[in-house]
Specification:
By secondary structure, the protein is mainly β. Helix content is 0%, strand content 48%. It has strands at 2-4, 7-13, 19-26, 33-40, 70-79, 84-92, 101-107, 115-120, 130-134, 140-146, 151-157, 164-171, 178-185, 188-194, 204-209, 220-222, 231-240, 246-254, 266-274, 280-282, 293-294. A hairpin with a 5-residue loop joins strand 9 and strand 10 (140-146). It starts with a strand and ends with a strand. It binds beta-D-galactopyranose.
Length: 296
């Protein structure tokens, strides 16, 4: 979800017809209207000029958006220096998860038609579940599950956000963490992750650090044993219009698998509670009152 002016834009996966990534918008997070299909098999493809392997897949096949692929976990950042919206995502061939690549697309407007720049393995590493994070100083990061999901990598992006600059750190090697969400609250960075159990949800965990490079804390459980039937995808920072305080809301994917019911996948939205600067809690709520939440 990206805030732009008074609008929240919700960008997500779409496997209907020739669609890949679609977008809805809302001012109150309750009423949503359709904006556009941001990426489709007909999207304009422009070879990225900074990497030679961007349009070829591991087996040397043409690997653009038009040849048939699955796009997962698309995330968009606005780059204030270039004025462009940059989308990072997970890229796979339709029938398996062996390519383990990320892909990048770019657009002049948040809900326009994105130009697809290609897919690749960041610095040669496998890359599956992923997310992005924009820090207060404008620097941006790409977080992705590497080495067959054994490790979690944090990469710093180049100033234009279109490419990888460097590998910043490798988190929890061998512990199989995925579905990463990185955000900052006060003096601490937080990382939410799930375990690896495919489309089935499991116990999520969080960790914290004073700098992105770490050291990162150990992993602490978040939510119940299935994270209320969801996997982390985002944390929203919203201002409570009654108290004026900044609230943090957990957004998770509730998958219905990759088959016929994929399009029925849902989201879980729940308030995150901080018991201290570093202690996080997530509890189930049957009903939410969004009238009290205004634009952050
Ligand atoms: C999940 C992942 C989803 C999707 C799925 C495929 O673990 O979070 O994005 O890739 O695996 O099995």
């Amino acid at each position: 979800m990206v805030k732009q002016g008074d609008w929240y834009y919700w960008i997500g996966e779409n496997r209907t017809e020739n669609h890949k990534v679609s977008c809805y918008k809302s001012m109150d997070l309750v009423n949503w209207s359709f904006c556009n299909h941001l990426l489709t098999t007909n999207s304009r493809v422009k070879k990225h000029d900074r990497a030679t392997d961007l349009t070829l897949d591991i087996k040397g096949r043409q690997a653009d958006i038009g040849t048939g692929c699955n796009i997962e976990r698309p995330k968009v950042l606005y780059n204030p220096n270039t004025g462009k919206y940059v989308m990072w995502m997970h890229w796979e061939l339709p029938d398996n998860y062996c390519e383990a690549r990320c892909a990048v697309a770019v657009c002049d407007t948040i809900d326009g038609e994105y130009t697809y720049l290609g897919s690749f393995r960041p610095m040669g590493h496998m890359s599956r579940d992923c997310n992005v994070f924009q820090d207060e100083d404008g620097s941006a990061y790409f977080i992705s599950a590497a080495r067959d999901n054994l490790d979690l990598h944090i990469y710093k992006l180049t100033e234009d956000y279109l490419a990888i600059d460097r590998l910043v750190c490798i988190l929890w090697p061998g512990q199989e963490r995925e579905a990463p969400v990185l955000f900052k609250r006060g003096n601490y960075y937080f990382m939410l992750t799930s375990g690896c159990s495919g489309w089935s949800p499991n116990q999520s965990a969080y960790a914290y650090a004073k700098t992105i490079e770490g050291p990162w804390s150990e992993l602490y459980s978040l939510g119940d044993e299935t994270t209320y039937g969801s996997q982390p995808t985002s944390v929203l920072q919203l201002k409570n219009s009654q108290t004026g305080s900044l609230e943090h809301w957990y957004l998770g994917d509730r998958w219905k698998g990759s088959g016929e019911k994929y399009y029925m996948s849902e989201y879980v939205l729940l308030p995150l509670h901080f018991k201290s600067d570093t202690e996080l809690h997530l509890e189930w709520r049957e009903n939410l009152n969004f009238n009290i939440v205004s634009s952050g």
